[in-house]
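Blinded run. Sample ID left blank on purpose so nobody reads anything into the name before looking at the predicted structure. Input follows.
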Amino acid sequence: MSLQSFLQKTVREGDLTLHLPGGRSLKLGDGSGPPLVARITSPMWAARIAAKPGLGVGEAYVEGGLVLEQGDIADFIDLIGRNAKFKKRKKRGPLARWWRDRRREANHRRAARRNVAHHYDLSNELYRRFLDADMQYSCAYFARSDMTLEEAQLAKKRHIAAKLALRPGQKVLDIGCGWGGMAMTLAEEAGVEVDGITLSTEQLALAQQRAEAKGLGSRVRFSLTDYRDVPGPYDRIVSVGMFEHVGRPNYQAYFDGVARLLKDDGVALIHSIGRPEGPNVTNAWVAKYIFPGGYIPALSEVLPAIERAGLLVTDIEILRLHYAETLKGWRERFALQRDEIAAMMDERFCRMWEFYLGISEMAFRHRGHFVFQVQLAKRVDALPITRDYMGEAEAKLAGPQRRVA
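Blinded prediction complete.
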């Protein structure tokens, strides 16, 4: 199919004028929304976009093959998202998924470390520029529509803490601890001891510094450790935004590990992005440039591994547009700090991350992506039999802040 035919079939909403190489122009959409004008700079880029739109559009924007002459990249990506419903979703067959599992998502220990470094070891100063002050790099929880990003990220941590049913003195494992914010919040507000593990050297160094600065060094410990190598056991396990990096070939090993590390009366809470359409493959551009080895799971792929591990699903919550609002906040803060980020990284990097943040937001607004929080236990009586305790604990945490010595 030619690029012109493809665009005319799929871009039915919005107002896009596209200048093609050779002087031709296409008027696309129904005229709604902000007017956008874009230009494809060469026949080579037109051919690459036509051949593989999922890869070619992002590469063209990053490399200067697609130039916006009116409007900004956020509006352009929103137009793509609004028209996603007109493009038939391509579902890969089991053989294609099996091949990608083995080739891209195997994530053995060395590959896992390398893939984490690709994204998370870029620069702590980069992440400071657009995250909240606690450097939470996962979906926030907007309990109210008027929450700031800082408020929503704190609400997310407390929402999770309430589900963990924590008691002072318990030992908690934080798998994929990031820059340490979740671990420190749990220690401060619930009086627990936390072991946080990460594969990012940049995250580890800063998390350790932050814990020492807060006087939490004796109760919050961070290490460069693969989840497969943790000894345990623990009263509670939490993992936020890490499961997307596990890879399908490792799902059973991951949940077998959670079962092994969890005490008989323990509780675990796994927070991950989920895909709505069932098993599929990672977007080619994201896999190549942003999250090598990553995969967003369908719940139908996760629950069987949980069952085989002998764990009980005690609660599941689906958060829908919360991540869209989180990404909007990051995207707007990135734009405000763009000049500083360009000086720190370079212009190409800025275009790459503008595209990454934009298409990620679009996936939640227009493609049905969501976040799931799965609560797990080994024993049927490990938790109260109604959910009232969650709301009560969350309300208590949201009241006048109580620090536990």
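Unblinding after everyone has recorded impressions. The chain has a mean pLDDT of 92.
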